[in-house]
Design a protein that fits this description.
The complex is a heterodimer of chains A (337) and B (507). Chain A has 337 residues and is of the alpha/beta class. Chain A contains 12 helices and 10 strands. Helix content of chain A is 46%, strand content 17%. With 507 residues, chain B is an all-alpha fold. Chain B folds into 2 domains: 299 residues, no CATH class; 141 residues, no CATH class. A two-stranded antiparallel ribbon of chain B has the order 1-2. The radius of gyration of chain B is 23 Å and the shape is globular. Classes of the chains: A alpha/beta (337), B mainly alpha (507).
Chain lengths: 337, 507
């Protein structure tokens, strides 16, 4: 009996603890939302008056996180308040976007992600909302992209030759993909619109696809340029083309996949979003701050070094147009995704 | 280049960062719910603004400190601080209960150091050669390796084999929650997006061990017993004699090599290496029946292996650019941010950084041993805190860790749920450790099995000798252990019968 009582006591303790956590967080969100209702009237005047939270959809260490954090640091200089980046990761960014798309609309909550994840997750059906479930603030950079790579001694030198070889021997060329994200979309376009007849093998994320290619488990795959660069330089691998719509600014002499398969354009751009319903004045003010923060020499150097690209920052109108263009392209793939 | 690396590490600023990193790592490691990976995640953005050598040195120190710190709570509280120290509980806690907490801690610390150094040594000397080994492991080989590891650990759980199997299968089932590998179909998510990522290992770990430990302690709360352990916690030197040290050398080297081997293979990690090494050590020992009762050998096997894994995991990371686990994936990001691209050209392009990494690892291993040996007296004093004050604090820390894992309150509910599940399992005498193994290896198995099914048309299994050898070995392990299990059961039955007869004749 005593034992049961003790057990119940522990249970109560543990549960109350969890409940405490719950109530404290809900109370904090309710206070912030109540403060938002008072602030929205004079939104553009008082803003920003406190710490801004930026939720990053991908894990620390990746490019989306790095770019988001660089932007946060640069924004602090312009806005004069702390801009704190927090990672909420999982499901190619879908977890974070789901959690914050209806977040506080007071101009102190933003989401930093990339366009391929935003539009790709909608196209593959991972989530049932698109960029229009947010208030897009700014596209603020473009990735160095993925390249289609093969071992250096492979008999094909262009994407067209690879596709032709696969048609000559259907199902014999093993192509490494990663189901769900941009690479998956790229593979589907390659087979459905490019006519390639690969044996599609799921080979996991970039690092795992690299292992599979080096170990001979797959004959061709796509890798982030930054992962493949050293292997291309030391003569183990060769790149057939980039999957960006045009080669990165600092490594220009590469064919683009869209030269061979016109629809094959996977541009991963870094984008800042606000929860739906954030006042337009704040979105505009934030966009202005992003434009100012990224207009420096430091930003230029950082983007050159990290992305092999020149700075690419858009105003609100162009950001939305850009997102719409990619969404329409990705939605046209939906039938075979 | 070697000298350049050394001078970069020997800057006062770098040394301070390594010291801070090691201490923070130990703290993260020792608190259940906070892991080495979380320490690295938290500090990674801080290193963006440092130089490459400073940043990487600090991250390495966090990694080594974090993996080593887990032994403290494993030994003192029977709650592993990180997944890597699960097997340290087996003998560490009984040793502490015998009043030899100092010896257990000292053993853990010193052999963690030795394991780390063996790992770093192999990393420095053999990295390129060992990389070829890592590349030989593809879908087929992983498939067989996971089956082999699982069957070995389950088979060797002893007379509880069926219950070990139940536990491991439960773990594998829990791991199927979330988006499926390969096709990203949501499974068992009940429409909750919080479940899309599946359960986090750390949440399961604290539920299984911390919450369950608190609950089973609560059973005794009204028995008016003494809540402090008045054991002899005086510590002389490192807690064990030179003779004892010499006796463990073979065990330590074998365990560290197992750790390095598992570290090299991407995707397996320290949580598995400590358990495999413990099982191997137990079954090659002359006094296997003493394992689990509190002997040094068990602590040595677990701690030398999990720290050996660090050096092992760095081998494919540096030479191929392939991270072996969550912590090294963070390190990969940390290197790339500083324009150091791990891969075949890293020695040519950033040789100074590579050597700086080696020296930083050695230095933080030394710091780790120093700080932990110095701190031992302080750690042991934790035992003097009455458990009715100590354990609620542990629960709070666990909840913080669960939330911090993905910034989701949802994970604390899971933690409580796993705690209840674990309590019921313990009551029905189902061991919970195989569950952790099933949870880690289940998804690896599934993913690679599905890859194999895509490959099999153009690449049949007889092209893969490692696969065939491992599968045959698995069959032998199963047959052998089922036989010895049956024999043990018969012997136990006979002993029982004899005891009954004896009792009958006594009457």
């Amino acid at each position: 009996m005593k034992r049961m009582f003790a057990l119940l006591l522990t249970l109560a303790m543990v549960l109350s603890l969890a409940a405490c956590g719950g109530s404290s967080s809900s109370s904090s969100s309710s206070t912030s939302s109540s403060s938002s209702s008072t602030e929205t009237s004079s939104a553009d005047e008082g803003w920003p008056g406190k710490t801004i939270n930026v939720y990053v959809t991908h894990a620390a260490g990746g490019d989306t996180d790095y770019m988001a954090r660089q932007l946060c640091t640069a924004l602090e200089g312009v806005l004069g308040v702390s801009v704190v980046a927090t990672n909420v990761t999982g499901s190619n960014g879908a977890t974070c976007m789901q959690q914050y798309k209806d977040g506080d609309k007071d101009g102190y909550t933003f989401i930093a992600t990339n366009t391929a994840a935003l539009n790709g997750n909608e196209a593959t059906g991972m989530v049932d909302f698109g960029y229009d479930a947010f208030e897009p603030v700014a596209v603020y950079g473009i990735q160095s992209g993925e390249n289609i790579v093969v071992p250096a001694d492979a008999p094909y030198d262009t994407l067209q030759e690879l596709i032709d070889a696969s048609i000559a021997n259907p199902g014999q060329i093993k192509y490494g993909t990663s189901t769900g994200g941009g690479v998956y979309i790229q593979t589907c376009v390659l087979t459905n619109l490019g006519g390639a007849q690969f044996n599609i093998i799921d080979a996991g994320d970039g690092a795992n696809r690299l292992t599979a290619l080096l170990g001979g488990e797959v004959d061709a795959t796509s890798l982030p340029y930054s992962t493949a660069a050293d292997y291309i330089e030391n003569g183990q691998l060769k790149s057939l083309c980039t999957c960006l719509s045009k080669a990165p600014d600092l490594i220009p002499n590469q064919p683009a996949a869209s030269d061979t398969v016109p629809e094959l354009k996977i541009d991963t751009e870094y984008v800042l979003l606000a929860p739906k319903g954030t006042p337009a004045e704040i979105v505009e003010a934030m966009n202005a701050a992003v434009l100012e923060a990224t207009g420096t020499d430091d930003w230029n150097t950082m983007v050159n070094d990290y992305c092999f690209q020149n700075p690419f920052v858009l105003n609100v109108e162009d950001t939305i147009a850009n997102l719409k263009e990619q969404r329409d392209l990705f939605q046209s793939f939906v039938p075979f995704l | 280049m070697i000298l350049q690396g050394l001078t970069e590490v020997l800057q006062p600023m770098t040394i301070i960062l390594i010291a801070i990193g090691t201490v923070v790592g130990i703290v993260f490691g020792s608190i259940p719910g906070l892991t080495a990976t979380m320490a690295i995640v938290m500090f990674l953005p801080v290193t963006y603004s440092m130089t490459a050598s400073e940043g990487i040195s600090m991250l390495m120190a966090l990694y080594i400190g974090g993996i080593s710190g887990g032994l403290i709570s494993a030994i003192l509280l029977n709650i592993p601080g990180t997944p890597s120290s699960v097997a340290t509980c087996f003998d560490g806690k009984p040793l502490a209960d015998k009043g030899e907490a100092g010896k257990a801690l000292g053993t853990g610390v010193v052999f963690s150091f030795i394991g780390t150094i063996i790992g770093i040594g192999l990393l420095m000397v053999l990295a390129p050669a060992l990389c070829d080994f890592a590349l030989k492991f593809q879908a087929y080989e992983y498939c067989a390796l996971t089956v082999f590891s699982l069957s070995m650990v389950i088979a060797l759980t002893g007379h509880d084999m069926p219950k070990g199997l139940i536990s491991a299968v439960l773990g594998a089932l829990l791991a199927t929650v979330g988006l499926a590998p390969i096709d990203s179909k949501p499974r068992f998510t009940f429409g909750l997006y919080q479940l899309n990522n599946g359960f986090a290992l750390v949440v399961l770990l604290i539920g299984l061990f911390a919450i369950a430990e608190v609950m089973s302690y609560a059973e005794t709360v009204r028995q008016n017993q003494d809540f402090t352990i008045r054991s002899n916690v005086k510590i002389k030197g490192v807690g064990f004699t030179f003779k004892e040290f010499v006796g463990q050398i073979r065990n330590a080297i074998v365990s560290a090599l197992i750790g390095v081997g598992i570290g090299i293979l991407p995707g397996i990690g320290g949580g598995v290496s400590c358990m495999i090494s413990y099982t191997v050590s137990k079954n090659t020992s002359k006094h296997r029946e003493l394992y689990g009762t509190g002997i040094m050998d068990g602590v040595v096997a677990s701690e030398a292996a999990n720290n050996g894994t660090i050096g092992g995991a760095m081998i494919p990371l540096l030479s191929l650019g392939i991270p072996g686990d969550a912590a090294t994936a963070m390190l990969l990001g940390g290197l790339q941010v500083h324009n150091v691209a791990p891969g075949p050209l890293i020695y040519e392009k950033s040789g100074n950084v590579v050597y700086a990494i080696f020296f930083a690892m050695v230095l933080s291993a030394i710091f780790m041993m120093l700080f932990m040996l110095l701190g031992m007296r302080f750690f042991v004093s934790v035992l003097k805190v009455p458990k009715n004050y100590l354990l609620p604090v542990v629960v709070v820390l666990c909840a913080i860790g669960a939330i911090g894992n993905a910034n989701m309150l949802f994970d604390t509910y899971c933690m409580v749920g796993f705690g209840l599940m674990s309590y019921l399992l313990i009551k029905s005498k189902v061991p919970t450790v195989p569950m952790i193994l099933g949870f880690i290896l289940g998804p690896t198995f599934e993913q690679n099995l599905r890859r194999v099914s895509q490959l099999t048309s153009s690449d049949p299994f007889w092209n893969h000798p490692i696969f065939c050898v491992l599968i045959i070995a698995t069959v032998f392990v199963v047959i052998f252990s089922v036989r010895s299990n049956l024999k043990d059961a018969k012997r136990a039955e006979q002993a029982e019968l004899e005891a009954m007869q004896k009792a009958g004749s006594d009457e």
